[in-house]
Amino acid sequence: MLIAGFPAGAFATNCYVVASGPGEECLIVDPGQDAEPGVTEVIAEHRLRPVAVLATHGHIDHIWSVAPVCGARGIPAYIHPADRALLSDPARGFPLAVGQQLFRGLTFTEPDDVVELADGMTLRLAGVELVVDHAPGHTPGSVTFREAREQVLFSGDLLFAGSIGRTDLPGGDYPAILDSLARVCLALPDHTHVLPGHGPQTTIGAERAANPFLAGLSAPAARGSDPPEPPAQHSGAAGQAAGPRRPGL
């Protein structure tokens, strides 16, 4: 399998281009701000033909270029229905005053063709088979894409190297993200490669051993028990969730 990734825009969001090999059809995962030149470069280098855009969730740093990429190539976008509204109104992902200020003068629209994702769905596209796992907590419609044959997880902003997604923006839910981490991530083998929405690659084993947010979690998460408290807060950017700094939005 061919996977080419690069950080896009001011948010340094990892955009991935996925194909069964050079010269084949491909998928584009999370084309964020200013991702179009990088996508075009990867496609040209490997002689690829895009067939779909996949969004792990609807935050602006992951969907900024979804409509332009889909429109230019006549391909559909895949997103969970709980985050679909963010495609055309990304300000919903921020507190009201912040969203109005950030997106003043900017217009976003849905692509012409949007396919809604569901938990447990298997996508067979571009010669690649990906299992969709609904993983709310960072946003209500967050999902991961899991390639079982080569043990690869596109984790979006669910799991990072040494951290997890923030839960202090609208729709965020800390107990929900802990449940998603236990249910979706910790059930996977240690050698599973994790390709996150921000920062370096990691493995499930490395995060199981050292990620402070996973301490005390098990797979599956124990239902009805109180979630572990976040690790002690470090000083950082205003509005950041408790604990070590979490990348992205």
What does this protein look like?
There is one protein chain. With 249 residues, this protein is of the alpha/beta class. The protein has a single domain, classed as Ribonuclease Z/Hydroxyacylglutathione hydrolase-like (Metallo-beta-lactamase, Chain A), CATH 3.60.15.10. The chain contains six helices and 14 strands. The strands form three sheets. A six-stranded mixed β-sheet has the order 1-2-3-4-5-6, covered by helices on one side. Strands 7-8-9-10-13-14 form a six-stranded mixed β-sheet. The radius of gyration is 17 Å and the shape is globular. The two termini are 29 Å apart.
Please tag this protein with its features.
alpha/beta, Metallo-beta-lactamase, Chain A, 249 residues, 6 helices, 20% helix
Tell the overall outline.
globular
Rg, rounded, reads 17 Å
Q: Please state how the strands of the largest beta sheet are arranged side by side.
A: 1-2-3-4-5-6
Q: Quickly give the CATH architecture.
A: 4-Layer Sandwich
In whole angstroms, the N-to-C terminal distance is 29 Å
CATH superfamily (homologous) name: Ribonuclease Z/Hydroxyacylglutathione hydrolase-like
Whole-number average pLDDT?
Answer: 90
Number of helices: 6
Task: Please render the helix and strand layout as text.
Layout: E1 2-8, E2 13-19, E3 25-29, H1 36-46, E4 49-54, H2 60-63, H3 66-73, E5 77-79, H4 96-102, E6 114-116, E7 122-125, E8 128-134, E9 143-147, E10 152-156, E11 159-160, E12 163-164, H5 174-185, E13 193-196, E14 202-203, H6 204-210
Parallel strand pairs: 3-4, 4-5, 5-6, 10-13
Antiparallel strand pairs: 1-2, 2-3, 7-8, 8-9, 9-10, 11-12, 13-14
